[in-house]
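Good morning C.,

I know you're traveling, so I'll keep this short. The sequence:
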Amino acid sequence: MADEKSKTTKLKEKIMMTEPKGVKSLTKKEIKKADEFCVGYKKFLDNSPIEREAVRYTVGLAESAGFAKFDPEAEYRAGDKVYYVNRDKAVALAVIGEYGVKNGARLAIAHIDSPRIDLKPNPLYEPNNLALFKTHYYGGLKKYQWTTIPLSLHGSVVKLDGTVVDVSWGDDENESCFCVTDLLPHLAQEQVKKPLAKAISGEDLNVLIGSRPYDTKDEEKDLVKLNVMSILNKKYGICEGDFLSAELCLIPSFKSRDIGFDSSMIGGYGHDDKVCAYPAVMAALDVQIPEKTCITYLTDKEETGSDGNTGMQSDFLRYFIYDLAKQDGVEGYRALSNSTCLSADVSAAFDPTYASAYEANNSSYINNGVIISKYTGHGGKYDTSDASAEYMGKIRALLEKNDVLWQVGELGKVDGGGGGTIAKYVANMNVDVVDLGVPVLSMHAPFEIVSKTDVYMAYRAFFAFFDEKD
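The tokens, ready to paste straight into the viewer:
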């Protein structure tokens, strides 16, 4: 019987799938590396809550690592490092390879926008001696989660003379912040009977910003509103009309924090998708002279469909690769067609509290490494790119060869909902692409949670992808 059992065990090891190795397979040294890597990630997360700030922080990291602004007229050699900014809200980092883009490029593409609350064009009003902002929420969020939490104001204002003013108010715990109020439970009998999606409407997301009137003896209306504008004018030199040419939003004002008695996880705003953006950036900064040109691209507007000239559906990245191809003496479309991509985006981690929303055999789990998603979309695979078996096999082999912890999974149950990534827009350019990213708990909430080892494994995956020898 012992020999028979041994044969069975050997057969199982040969032909059956094993459980993902998970964090338990890592040494203390490897776990320490993950923790150290995430120190830098938390700084990135806290300093990059919105697109413009993420681009600025990324450019700072890139310049410190020897990257220079891209010049379409310059000639680049293997090992040269360049960055290319698109309208201050998207950025590409490229490391020129030995063969340039003649045989295609390797792309890692993440997005740097996250669900939030944007100001309307005419936001400021004063009802009943309180000053409030009218807002329009951005991306897929649960509106009730955004009430009664501290909020900070971020963004940019363009004045009539063209001056751009950056606004940041509410992050420092010693600085005032803002808040969306909610109805007290004593009077909420009708509210609590509503479905979650309707308990708080979009028009209810009004942000409380002031209550004291402007100090004057004149009998004027809207003195609280006037006082708020007076404060903003003194600090930023803006007037009410400047809201018409502004991009201002409210985001959670709390910083990222370690989670758990073991500090094994990170809680914070904007993991989706900064948790993939930062590892992809660091992989580009650390790769030396790759065979193929490697490009990390951080794009905007993914949470609202990737439209616009800073979203993935714009031609910015395509034109950038065309410029690189021109230097190499090849047609841009050929360079694209020979390129490969990791769509660096998150997926939903299995949450045992809400287990009924998941299909356990095809879910991703915290601490089991990066997740590869062959497709996303919804229902019958609508609105998705379905990666080929050949490309899935190539990425599987890459991760195994480089000892990267990985797993496969879907977003949740087939008919439970769904979501999309930028992979389909990359695939439409005739590029092989698959989603690879970090599992997230409480995705799209003001405070999301990820595993430190999963973040580090994302870096390992992107670096291996860039450094691969064909």
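Safe travels,
E.
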